[in-house]
Design brief:
Helix content is about 60%, strand content about 0%. The chain is mainly α.
Length: about 250
C-alpha cells in the first residue's frame, strides 16, 4: 500500500510569458569619448543638421544619437533652435571675449591683430563640430538667428578696428589708406578655416593656421623678416590669457 506522503509531487511546467506590447527601447549607453553631455548633444545635432537638414531633424533624434532621454537633453537646451544658436555662438563668443581682453592690454597694434588671428584660428580649427555644414544651413536667414549673425558682424568690425590701428602704426597715411581697401581679407582668411576642416587632418589644420597667420600679417604690409618676431610676441600674449584654447595638433 502506498501512502500519500511517499508520492512525488508533480512539477508544473514553467509558464510561458504572456506576449505583450513591445516596450519603448532603452536609450543607448552614453558615449564615452571624453565629451560632456552638452558637448555630445552639440556634436550629434551638428552631424544630423548636416546630414538631413535642420528642419527634418527632431530633438528625439538628437537625444537618441547621444544615448540620453529627451528630458535630459532639455535640461541642457530649451529647444532645437537653442542648439543651433549655441553651435554658431561657439565660434564667435570666444574670439569676442579674447578681443575685449586684448583691448585692455598695452600692446603693439600689429601684435594685437596677430594674437586675435591666432586665437580665432585655433578656436575654429580645433572645434570638433561639423560647422562648415552648419554655416550653410538655409535656416540661418530666419529672424531667430539674427543675434548670432549680429555677433559675427561685431567680430568682423573688431577685426577692422584692430587692422586699421595696425596699418596706422606700420605705414604712412596714404599707404595705410591703400591697404585698408583689402582689410576685410584678414577676417575672410580666418573665416575660411571653417571649410578647411572638411578636408584637412590635424597636421594640415596646424599648417593652415600657420599660413593664415603669416598671410594676415602680409595683408597688413608687415615686412617678411619682421613676421616671425610679431608671431612670437603674439604667442607670448596668448600665453597670458586666462582661457587657453587647445593647441592644434601638429
Amino acid at each position: 500500500m502506498t501512502h500519500d506522503a511517499d508520492k512525488t509531487p508533480a512539477v508544473a511546467p514553467p509558464e510561458r510569458p504572456t506576449p505583450g506590447k513591445p516596450g519603448r527601447p532603452r536609450s543607448a549607453p552614453k558615449q564615452r569619448n571624453g565629451l560632456s553631455t552638452r558637448e555630445e548633444i552639440l556634436q550629434a545635432a551638428s552631424r544630423l543638421f548636416g546630414e538631413q537638414g535642420y528642419g527634418k531633424t527632431t530633438t528625439r533624434q538628437i537625444a537618441e544619437a547621444v544615448g540620453i532621454k529627451q528630458s535630459t537633453m532639455y535640461y541642457h537646451f530649451a529647444d532645437k533652435g537653442t542648439i543651433l544658436t549655441s553651435l554658431l555662438s561657439s565660434t564667435v563668443t570666444p574670439a569676442l571675449e579674447f578681443a575685449r581682453w586684448l583691448t585692455e592690454q598695452d600692446l603693439d597694434p600689429v601684435v594685437r591683430v596677430c594674437a586675435l588671428v591666432t586665437f580665432d584660428l585655433e578656436t575654429l580649427l580645433r572645434d570638433r563640430l561639423n560647422l562648415h555644414v552648419v554655416y550653410h544651413l538655409p535656416e540661418l536667414e530666419d529672424a531667430d538667428f539674427v543675434p548670432t549673425r549680429s555677433a559675427q558682424t561685431v567680430l568682423r568690425d573688431t577685426y577692422r578696428e584692430f587692422g586699421r590701428a595696425a596699418l596706422g602704426a606700420l605705414h604712412t597715411h596714404e599707404h595705410a589708406a591703400d591697404l585698408a581697401r583689402d582689410l576685410d581679407l584678414v577676417f575672410a582668411l580666418v573665416e575660411a578655416s571653417v571649410s578647411q576642416r572638411q578636408w584637412g587632418g590635424e597636421g594640415e589644420r596646424a599648417r593652415y593656421a600657420e599660413s593664415a597667420v603669416r598671410g594676415s600679417l602680409r595683408l597688413l604690409g608687415v615686412d617678411g623678416p619682421a613676421v616671425p618676431d610679431v608671431i612670437a610676441r603674439a604667442n607670448a600674449v596668448l600665453a597670458h590669457y586666462p582661457v587657453q584654447p587647445t593647441p592644434i595638433s601638429r
